[in-house]
Amino acid sequence: MPETSDRKDDHIRIIEEEDVETTGAGFTDIDLVHEALPEVHRDEIETTVDLFGHELAAPIVIESMTGGHPNTTKLNRTLAEAAERTNVAMGVGSQRAGLELDDEAVLESYTVVRDAAPNAFLYGNVGAAQLLEYGVDDVEEAVAMIDADAMAIHLNFLQEAVQPEGDVDARGCLAAIERVADELSVPVIVKETGNGMSRETATRLADAGVDAVDVAGQGGTTWSGIESHRAAAVGAERQEAIGRLFRAWGVPTAVSTLEAATVHDCVIASGGVRSGLDIAKAIALGARAGGLAKPFLGPAGKGVDEVVALIETLTLELRTAMFVTGSASLSELRDTDYVVLGRTNEYIEQRRR
């Protein structure tokens, strides 16, 4: 199996078996102000949200995780079936392997998602670094591969810097993103992969015409840590050490969300989102939706019902947060009062100077 495909299998194994979680997303420093007289019926609270013309039942995104190895086909099928049943959004992992390898089994690890979820909001995924090699037609091929409703372009340059075989030439990526955003047939989401986005980066992306940004901030799964484990397995000691050093690098998710939402009207908050309450806090900070990845892996290994149960739990947690802030809709939740404490407040104040 070629290197790109094997790497995808390695990633899932390491996430499941090793400690690759960080703290510091910042949601514990965000308190939503309690409303003792909410004057709404909890069960009538509206959790639907519009994402590029597609009405989701809840502002939940099953974040891009995998694809590109036959071992991941079952996982993607399970996640997609759950997205279909609950009407939430789902992304696939990088489609590079599907575009570059002539292997039907690899291709099926991606195409299975649309087979399993004919009506769900699904988005594809290519790397910003690959846009330096791909034309818009290649990205359209990735769209067609899963009949995608949108395309994510991921930014993972810290991960690439830790990989022994990583692509560390980031020159020209913004211009390539702007070209794709201008010409692609579906909306474009630019997403980080665990290190967050500053206001300045989100502004550059907004100016480039991207339709949404997914901040994927520091505080959840660390891809630097994952690549450190991979480097150790092949004896790349220097890369292993760099991966450990930068394990907790990045802009915390709560800060990224708040900053990005000041310059872009469609922000997805991911990175350390672990509950419906975290999603509620992200929306109060200005996000359109909240995304989770690793929390879905364990349930996906047990079957569709387990994934659906997690989505239902997240939705109830969100609905409860909305109830006790007196928010009858997500637009009202976006306007609810909150307090920022601790390190997150200090970070925000320092950034304002």
TrEMBL record:
Residue ranges of domain FMN-dependent dehydrogenase in the record: 170-335
Keywords: Cytoplasm, Flavoprotein, FMN, Isomerase, Isoprene biosynthesis, Magnesium, Metal-binding, NADP
Residues annotated for FMN binding in this entry: S64, M65, T66, S94, N125, K191, T221, G272, V273, R274, A293, K294
Reaction equation(s) it catalyzes: isopentenyl diphosphate = dimethylallyl diphosphate
Binding site for substrate: R7, K8, S94, Q95, R96, Q159
Any one Pfam family match given in the protein's UniProt record, by short name: FMN_dh
GO (cellular component) term, any one: cytoplasm
Annotated GO biological process: isoprenoid biosynthetic process
Binding site for Mg(2+): E160
Gene3D superfamilies xrefs: Aldolase class I
Listed cofactors: Mg(2+); FMN; NADPH
Compartments reported by the entry: Cytoplasm
Documented EC number(s): 5.3.3.2
GO MF annotations, alphabetized: FMN binding; isopentenyl-diphosphate delta-isomerase activity; magnesium ion binding; NADPH binding; oxidoreductase activity
Assembly, per entry: Homooctamer. Dimer of tetramers.
Protein family per UniProt: Belongs to the IPP isomerase type 2 family.
Function recorded in the entry: Involved in the biosynthesis of isoprenoids. Catalyzes the 1,3-allylic rearrangement of the homoallylic substrate isopentenyl (IPP) to its allylic isomer, dimethylallyl diphosphate (DMAPP).
Record protein name field: Isopentenyl-diphosphate delta-isomerase
Organism of origin: Natrinema altunense (strain JCM 12890 / CGMCC 1.3731 / AJ2)
Gene field: fni
